[in-house]
TrEMBL record:
Any Pfam family the entry gives: RWD
GO terms assigned for molecular function: protein kinase inhibitor activity
InterPro entries associated with the record: GIR2-like, RWD_dom, UBQ-conjugating_enzyme/RWD
Record-annotated RWD domain positions: 57-196
Signal peptide bounds: none
Biased composition (Acidic residues): 118-143
PROSITE patterns reported in the protein's UniProt record: RWD
Name the record gives this protein: RWD domain-containing protein
């Protein structure tokens, strides 16, 4: 082979196996050849494949990889439900919605990330788990020492999480412009979502622990009570006597016991006593 010769992208008979590198699913082949002169040369051979044909081939491959997870909406649109590996009884899935622009893969696909739909086997498993949980709750209804809440089971992805994941997936798509990239995007989404789920579990567990500690401190206050001083006790005693109307009740009781007449003390305090009344009142006080 002479320098500058054109090499057919599908014909490798004239290319030594040593140093040959083919980039799978790419628009280019990079072929290193040892030429007669002893120095290396590289040929970048662009594949002349129609975008629609390339899209169809990628979709066919994806359908074979994700036979149950992929839902085809049209020749240019499909959804892949991604099952996340989490340490929870509940199964978490995210859905990657993909739409091919006419010139894909020369441009990035149109992407959306949503909460995935449960597959049939997921629903069966969750139904059994739910029945088991109901039975456990019935058995533990009167048990003060019931098992604590398993925080990871309460964690969900919110709209902000989905938006952040979509941003990362789009960044990955931009780095892969020029080659079919959906499989790589699914892998990136899965890895990022699983890492995010772990972080959310850790944050939720931390908040849960802090709330438990706060409640324990509140409960402890009931046993510790409030430190009492002579001044605080006197203030409390006066408030208590006023709230319970103790002085009024004692006064009423004294009137009842005296036949409705004023006591000597009352006569003296109100300054209503004449000489005779004063003497009688003093005698009553002495008695």
């Amino acid at each position: 082979m002479t320098k500058g010769a054109v090499v057919n992208a599908t014909d490798h008979r004239h290319v030594t196996s040593e140093g040959r590198r083919a980039v799978s699913n790419s628009k280019f082949f990079i072929i290193n050849t040892k030429l007669n002169g002893g120095h290396s040369d590289a040929k970048y051979l662009k594949l002349t494949m129609d975008p629609a044909e390339e899209q169809a081939q990628e979709l066919e491959v994806l359908e074979s990889i994700y036979p149950d997870e992929l839902t085809k909406l049209s020749d240019k649109q499909f959804v892949i439900n991604v099952l996340l590996e989490t340490e929870t009884e509940r199964k978490h899935r995210l859905a990657l919605h993909v739409e091919y622009p006419d010139t894909y893969p020369e441009v990035i696909p149109l992407l959306k990330v949503r909460i995935g739909e449960s597959l049939e086997e997921d629903e069966d498993d969750e139904s059994e788990d739910y029945e088991d949980e109901e039975e456990e709750e019935d058995n533990e209804a009167d048990d003060e020492h019931a098992s604590p809440v398993h925080i990871p089971e309460t964690v969900e992805f919110d709209s902000d999480d989905l938006s952040n994941l979509l941003t990362k997936v789009i960044e990955e798509a931009e780095e892969n412009v020029g080659m079919p990239s959906v499989f790589a995007l699914v892998s990136v989404l899965k890895d990022l979502a699983e890492s995010m789920f772990i972080r959310k579990c850790e944050e939720a567990q931390k908040l849960h622990d802090e709330e438990l500690q706060r409640r324990e401190r509140e409960e402890q206050k009931k046993f510790n009570g409030t430190k009492v001083t002579p001044q605080s006790f006197e203030e409390w005693r006066l408030r208590f006597r006023e709230e319970m109307k103790i002085d009024e009740r004692l006064e009423q009781r004294a009137k009842t016991a005296n036949g409705g007449k004023l006591t000597g003390k009352e006569i003296f305090e109100r300054g209503l006593a004449g000489n005779d009344d004063l003497v009688e009142g003093l005698e009553n006080l002495q008695v």
